[in-house]
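Incident log, support desk, overnight shift.

02:14 A customer reports that sequence design results differ from what the structure should imply. Their input is reproduced verbatim below. On-call engineer (initials T.W.) acknowledged and began investigating.
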């Protein structure tokens, strides 16, 4: 690999997130602006292993800013977890004279990139793209705002029917290890309670909150449950409540992958655009082995070592507000 960066490979990996296309566009256009060559690597690490790589000039990324998903497609690659897979990927980068990598993805993408960077020292920058908002080193990840808005819109609709029938709804949102979508969609959607993996709420605590609603003649309730809840998913919680009491008329809605799609919000488009530009400008300034982030509205770079594997804690203020307002 040459020290001077002339050609950048960009790819998206792991779970897709709305705004990834805006980030791809920003990377490709920044490359064009700074007279660098840009190529797109298809299907994340899979495409790197197979050499599925194509030029990505400024015009090639027209009309994608507003689209959900990722035009470069995405994958979770098992082969890249093996030394042989990573060697194949490195050989393809060399064959294509790729001097630097910009990866757009979440913690799985990050883990792969970190390992690859340690082994092959290819200048690399991560742009955090995941609806989970679970990476430290940035206040927001690309896709989180859109996914949370989607969840809120769905909760509002469920509220209409819940109110009409005096029903208790358990609404499951995404977040295997992260309660970010749940806590903020819960606050914005007026949930009676929010169950997240980060908090040690017991089933008894939850039941008490619902019971209190009964005492104060609260006839319908919405409980937002993060996928990774430690006390059971939405279906399990609904079952447990039904076993305990026949008072509630209970329904369950799992929002699932609905939250991963759709046109990105203005916030995610701007965030992705800023991060894409910052990634290329960072590489040109000699930043590498770093993640781009936004902290207090400033672009920042954090070394892989300082952020990898660390969970983005949910602020205590949000948890407090959710509790106060669910009375
Ligand atoms: O990491 C993003 C995410 O949407 C998580 O919230 C969810 O747990 C997971 O991906 C689902 O992954 P898959 O699309 O592979 O089922």
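02:41 Re-run completed on a clean worker. Output:
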């Amino acid at each position: 690999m040459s020290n001077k960066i002339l050609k950048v490979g960009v790819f998206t990996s792991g779970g897709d997130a709305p705004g990834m296309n805006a980030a791809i566009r920003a990377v490709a256009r920044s490359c064009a602006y700074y007279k660098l060559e840009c190529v797109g690597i298809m299907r994340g690490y899979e495409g790197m292993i197979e050499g599925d790589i194509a030029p990505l000039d400024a015009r090639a990324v027209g009309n994608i800013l507003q689209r959900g998903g990722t035009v470069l497609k995405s994958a979770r690659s098992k082969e890249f977890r093996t030394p042989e897979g990573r060697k194949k990927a490195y050989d393809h980068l060399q064959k294509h004279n790729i001097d630097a990598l910009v990866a757009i993805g979440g913690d799985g993408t990050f883990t792969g990139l970190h390992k690859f960077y340690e082994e092959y020292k290819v200048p690399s920058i991560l742009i955090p793209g995941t609806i989970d908002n679970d990476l430290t080193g940035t206040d927001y990840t690309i896709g989180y705002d859109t996914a949370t808005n989607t969840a809120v819109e769905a909760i509002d609709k469920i509220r209409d029917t819940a109110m009409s029938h005096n029903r208790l709804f358990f609404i499951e949102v995404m977040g295997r290890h992260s309660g970010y979508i749940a806590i903020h969609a819960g606050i914005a959607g007026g949930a009676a309670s929010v169950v997240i993996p980060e908090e040690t709420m017991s089933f008894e605590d939850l039941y008490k909150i619902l019971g209190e609603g009964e005492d104060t003649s609260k006839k319908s309730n919405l409980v937002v449950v993060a996928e990774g809840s430690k006390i059971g998913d939405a279906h399990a919680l609904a079952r447990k409540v039904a076993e305990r009491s026949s008072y509630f008329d209970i329904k369950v809605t799992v929002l699932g992958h609905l939250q991963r799609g759709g046109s990105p919000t203005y916030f995610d488009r701007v965030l992705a655009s800023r991060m894409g530009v910052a990634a290329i400008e960072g590489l040109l300034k000699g930043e590498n082995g770093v993640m781009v982030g936004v902290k207090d509205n400033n672009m920042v770079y954090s070394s892989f070592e300082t952020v990898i594997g660390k969970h983005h804690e949910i602020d205590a203020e949000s948890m407090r507000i959710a509790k106060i307002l669910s009375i």
